[in-house]
Automatic annotation (TrEMBL):
One of its GO terms (biological process) is iron-sulfur cluster assembly. PANTHER family: CYTOSOLIC FE-S CLUSTER ASSEMBLY FACTOR NUBP2 (PTHR23264:SF19), NUCLEOTIDE-BINDING PROTEIN NBP35 YEAST -RELATED (PTHR23264). One of its GO terms (molecular function) is ATP-dependent FeS chaperone activity. This is Iron-sulfur cluster carrier protein. It comes from Desulforhabdus amnigena. The keyword ATP-binding applies.
């Protein structure tokens, strides 16, 4: 099928008689690589990994979209300091928030009048919203679409697997055994639903002391690499814990926007490079690397 251009894509999205699956296919054909960020359990920093991977790719000059399908606990807009409801085009397409010219963000939080409201939905409603995030959003041409899924192997990852079958999963874990036991379930989930895995990343692998720079293995270390070897999937790297990441998330300013080089920032870009190496036919950078501070 020939890829849609911007005008025709908006046109087909606005036709009620157009099959929703065809609209989704039209939109996805304009996105070169789709990445699903998953975790077996909560509290491993999955949304932080999705946020910083998206931003690192954008800083390298790629066109990036970040889709937050954690419908019950969305946190992506806050981490980027994005506020307000999403706007709609005359063709009834949803306009994503634009954090920078080459980084677009969509989240259920940006569709709620009251961001403190509890989203109490069952599977079919969740599936419909994720469909809408793909079919009705004005993503245009992207090098990468990063999808932040909620923890576990429930409705949302199942919907993403069905709607974006060519997506590749990035599994997030922390080094301790309780997290590794759950991440093995995520790996087996991907295999059962035929999601290709780009690899596994170990988050919060330790802390570099801000005073002496000595490495402190808070939750032990190396468990992610051992699990990737045991489960026969690629290991994408280790990202250390950095208290500034928590502060940056609360302030809505990701810390890799700062000029200061830190072990965390270095690890994030090494992780992004490892992801790029894993992808077949990784797109070349279309625009100059943007170091503009938001």
């Amino acid at each position: 099928m020939k890829s849609c251009d911007s005008k025709s894509c908006a046109s087909c999205a606005s036709k009620d008689k157009k099959n929703k699956d065809e609209v989704i296919q039209c939109k996805l054909m304009r996105i070169k690589h789709k990445l699903i960020v998953m975790s077996g359990k909560g509290g491993v920093g999955k949304s932080s990994v999705a946020t910083y991977l998206s931003l690192a790719l954008a800083q390298k000059g790629y066109q990036v979209g970040l889709m937050d399908v954690d419908l019950h606990g969305p946190s992506i807009p806050k981490m980027f300091g994005l506020h307000g409801l999403l706007n709609i085009t005359p063709e009834h397409e949803i306009i994503p928030h634009e954090y920078r010219p080459n980084l677009k963000v969509v989240s259920i939080e940006s569709m709620l009048e009251d961001t403190d409201s509890a989203v109490i939905w069952r599977g079919p409603l969740k599936h419909g919203v994720i469909q809408q995030f793909i079919a009705d959003c004005k993503w245009d041409d992207l090098d990468f679409l990063v999808v932040d899924c909620p923890p576990g192997t429930g409705d949302e990852p199942l919907s993403v697997a069905k709607l974006i079958p060519e997506a590749q999963a990035i599994i997030v874990t922390t080094p301790q055994e309780v997290a590794l036991a759950d991440v093995r379930k995520s790996i087996n989930f991907c295999r059962k639903v035929n999601i290709e895995m780009a690899g596994l990343v170990e988050n919060m692998s330790g802390l570099f002391c801000p005073h002496c720079n000595e490495f402190i293995p808070i939750f032990r270390t190396g468990g992610g690499r051992r699990t990737s070897e045991l489960m026969n999937i690629p290991f994408l790297g280790s990202i250390p814990f950095d208290p500034a990441v928590v502060e940056g998330g609360d302030r809505g300013r990701p810390v890799i926007e700062d000029e200061v080089e830190t072990p965390f920032k270095k690890a994030v870009f090494e992780f992004a490079d490892a992801v790029l190496k894993r992808l077949k036919d990784a797109p070349k950078v279309a625009v100059a690397e943007d170091k503009t501070v938001h």
